[in-house]
Design goal:
14 strands; four-stranded mixed beta sheet; globular; five-stranded mixed beta sheet; 3 domains; alpha/beta; Restriction Endonuclease
């Protein structure tokens, strides 16, 4: 495999500080200016751990005076649960010890929601402000009439002692409803922030992996291994194919958030082969298939209703998405197959972040051999790629960082976007502007190797990329219908960018340039397009003068891939031979005069 950084994230969990929480809370200010910093911290937790919908998270926030220690109430009818959150946005990380009463007051809420005594409940809510009282009544109605589960979360940047944790668990035993309480203090909340920054949020809290047992297959237990040096524990066992399919049915696409690719579709050779095996030899699927690999924070073996289970928290399928999705698409056939499952628990990631990142990268590279892993795949979960996906989404641009089918892209992000931009395409565009056009014109995968990657993806500012992207759109528009021009597109992009970049250097001017390109402002676009056409004509003359002669002559595609088509060589031709350069300069000046108006 070509040399690459092959990294899954760009920072160690243990290096995250209070300022990192300040950054995510501050980022929410622009969209929720009416919320206090404490409420924005609560909102962040809901979005990072409970719900994918930022709107639902914001609607759940109820903090204020007379709030019963409740900062958010979210009723999830799909999951049939009520989520109640108390959050403490301390101004330091891991320095404040939380009080017992605050934690117990949260546990008491479950007792009130499960109590059928109307008078007692009315007395409990009468001192609460209107929104809290209304949400508590709705939550209680779901619990009493529909047996919704109550999930209590105490979230803090401080610390909670073991004795307080034990007291909260004892207190919820008094509640006459199905309830659980989770205390997420500084150690765990740092891991949650890391997952959020890595694009793995909200997580899947838990899954039960049912070990295979049937009349035709004899399974003698499970292989369990503990590595004391790396503090990694693993289990290997088999599951029925339909049980694996149910994991996707329950958890959805979030199950594969750490996977370096999306679903590649049913038409790939491997996926077609899997389906053929399911149809013709399901009893041999176990022998032909590579199985699935799951990473988790914690795993416990349990027995329930005569079934052997491995109960896993925060699980992620890092190898085996194609297998899982193929089985899920054909549940009847999956029931006849068996799948090898490997579960790897990496605990205490806040103290073991480098181990986790390195392990994840090596497992991905080492186990995904049925559908070959590309260098660009290994960079899909890099922090820059995740940040670009998020920031461009806010600008109604869909940045596609994982290799997957078009239908998967549309399913995940919908159709409300100005542009769909694949990371490989963006890498070529930036390489053409920042490195050399012939480098961009070469193999795309090389752009994700260590030699080039950091030079191309050196910023997380979306406008750094979008300004170059929209200029490329204009170059391609001027090349439509002409194959020779298409071959020369990166050389033209490089030159035009070199002429205008200094004029849109500030963030405001760069933003205005992008917006005018998107809106197709005639005052700016027309002169730019006219200039681009003239540069294409200059490239034609440049090619004819340098293509060689006789048996040494090359076509334009070969020429543009070679160093003969370097930025410097074309610039020298432009200065010494092209007669209309002053016209091009006037057209570009006219276009740039519109920026900032």
């Amino acid at each position: 495999m070509a040399k690459s950084k092959a990294k899954s994230s760009s920072s160690d969990v243990s290096k995250l500080t209070f300022s990192d929480f300040g950054d995510v809370v501050e980022d929410l200010r622009s969209r929720f200016p009416a919320l206090s910093a404490d409420d924005r911290f609560t909102l962040w937790f809901l979005r990072a751990y409970i719900t994918e919908s930022e709107t639902d998270a914001a609607d759940a926030v109820v903090g204020g005076t007379n709030d019963k220690g409740i900062d958010a109430i979210l009723i999830d009818d799909a999951m049939r649960c009520v989520v109640v959150v108390q959050a403490k946005y301390r101004q330091s990380l891991g320095e404040v010890s939380e009080k017992r009463n605050d934690v117990i007051n949260l546990a008491e809420i479950a007792c009130q929601l499960g109590d059928r005594n109307e008078a007692k409940f009315a007395q409990y809510v009468q001192s609460s402000h209107g929104l809290i009282a209304e949400k508590l009544r709705k939550a209680r109605d779901r619990v009493l009439s529909s047996d919704y589960k109550v999930w209590l979360y105490f979230v803090t940047l401080g610390n909670v002692s073991t004795s307080i944790r034990e007291d909260s668990q004892s207190h919820i035993q008094k509640a006459a409803c199905n309830v659980s309480v989770s205390i997420i203090d500084s150690t765990r909340v740092v891991t949650l922030l890391q997952d959020d920054l890595d694009g793995v949020a909200p997580p899947i809290p838990t899954l039960d992996l049912e070990m295979e047992s049937s009349s035709t297959v004899k399974v003698n237990g499970v292989s369990q291994r503990y590595d004391t040096h790396n503090q990694v524990e693993s289990w290997v066992f088999s599951m029925r194919g339909d049980a694996v399919a149910d994991l996707y049915k329950f958890a959805g696409i979030r199950l594969f958030a750490r996977n370096v690719r999306g679903f590649l579709g049913s038409n790939t050779a491997i996926n077609s082969g899997m389906l053929k095996t399911l149809r013709t030899e399901p009893d041999r699927f176990f022998y032909y298939n590579n199985g699935i690999t799951i990473l988790c924070d914690e795993a416990k073996r349990q027995s329930q209703q005569g079934k052997d289970l491995l109960h896993v928290s925060n699980p992620q399928v890092i190898n085996g998405q194609q297998t899982t999705r193929t089985l899920a698409a054909h549940p009847d056939l999956a029931a006849k197959a068996s799948v090898l499952v490997k579960v790897i628990q990496v605990a205490n990631r806040s103290n073991n972040g480098k181990t986790f990142d390195n392990l994840l990268s090596r497992i991905v590279a080492g186990t995904n051999w049925q559908n070959a892993i590309r260098v660009s795949d290994l960079m899909s979960n890099d922090r820059v790629q995740i940040d670009l996906e998020r920031s461009m989404r806010k600008l109604s641009c869909a940045y596609i960082r994982k290799r997957q089918t078009k239908s998967e892209v549309q399913k995940a992000i919908g159709n409300k976007h100005f542009a769909y931009i694949f990371k490989e395409e963006m890498a070529q565009i930036v390489a053409a502007c920042e490195i050399e056009p012939h480098v961009a014109r070469g193999a795309k995968e090389k752009l994700f190797e260590e030699q080039y990657y950091d030079r191309i993806f050196k910023s997380t500012d979306p406008y750094f990329y979008l300004s170059r992207y929209w200029l490329m759109r204009e170059v391609l528009y001027c090349a439509r219908g002409d194959q020779n021009r298409k071959e020369a597109r990166f050389l033209v992009l490089n030159f035009v960018w070199s002429q205008i970049s200094s004029s849109i250097r500030t963030k405001n001017s760069e933003r205005d340039f992008v917006e005018k390109c998107r809106s197709q402002s005639e005052e700016m676009i027309v002169p730019i397009s006219q200039a681009i056409v003239k540069v294409f004509n200059a490239v034609k003359g440049f090619f004819q003068a340098n293509r060689g002669s006789g048996s040494e002559a090359v076509d334009i595609a070969t020429f543009c891939k070679s160093k003969r088509a370097s930025a410097k060589a074309f610039h020298d031709y432009w200065m010494n031979s092209y007669k209309q350069k002053q016209q091009v300069e006037r057209l570009l000046q006219k276009a740039l005069a519109e920026v900032g108006k």
